[in-house]
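thread: overnight batch results

M.L. [08:02]
morning all. the overnight job finished for the chain we discussed friday. pasting input first so we're all looking at the same thing
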Amino acid sequence: MPELTKVRDLRAGIWVPADHPQPLPGLVVVDGSGDGAFDDFGDWPARLAGCGAAVLVHDKPGCGGSPGHWTDQTIDDRAEETLAAMAVLRRHPAVAGRPVGLLGISQGGWVSLRAAAQGPVDFVVTLSGPGVGPAAQERVRIERELQYDGVSAADVREALGWVDERTRRLIDGEPVTDVIAHQSRFADRPWFTIATQHFDDPATMRFLAGILAFDPVRYMPDVTCPVLALFGAADPLVPVPESVVAFATHLRETPGIAVFPGADHGLFTAPPDPTRSRADQLAPGFLPMLTGFLAARGLERV
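M.L. [08:03]
and the structure it wrote out:
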């Protein structure tokens, strides 16, 4: 069972492996998009702790009984929240002066880079964290989903035309209710559901407007800590080649980068199989690579 604590007003749990000598490096898990409570992670925090770290996972605002709402947050807001979580973990006796870093999952990769550019972050691991910004990543996601769904090339072009216009309008500060009203004019199009399903109400559209202009490349040169960037070659949501180039080009120090063949956005190599542990379907080498990276951090002091 995790040790329960709080990050500001958010519930959190801390997992400490019993079979590793202490002190240990600390690892704050930075969740991806959407809602999420810390106890939604199942046995993943314990599995990560088994790689040799004290692991903290916290609720997103408005989830698990925690106050606020995640749709009210920008990337900067999430970065400040993440730095607060790190401060909590640094005080835990299992860490005792060892480095504390971040594991940013998907959108959490942007948050982790932003936090590392502004505060005391000792290392960063990104798991399917795009090297491009939300506008470019969302465009790629929608285009691939439309193509997978068999939407015609002409309809894909029309859909992406609206996506680009929506992005421009939101970045320019147009009221989200006006953008939604305009978007509804396309309700009869074959691409409408895919292009709008995650951003079809004022709260989520306002959230999108608050993050669209974020560009991780802007902050990469200010990240001075070690970075390990992990990708799945079959990730349908992230432009992996462009992301690899961004990490390799713009970080101040050369990062560790791995692209796992056949792996998806979660670094799994197969769909869920009820006859197998989900962990057995992870990309071979992922957990050993993370374990080695954490072991190297555990030899350091801050």
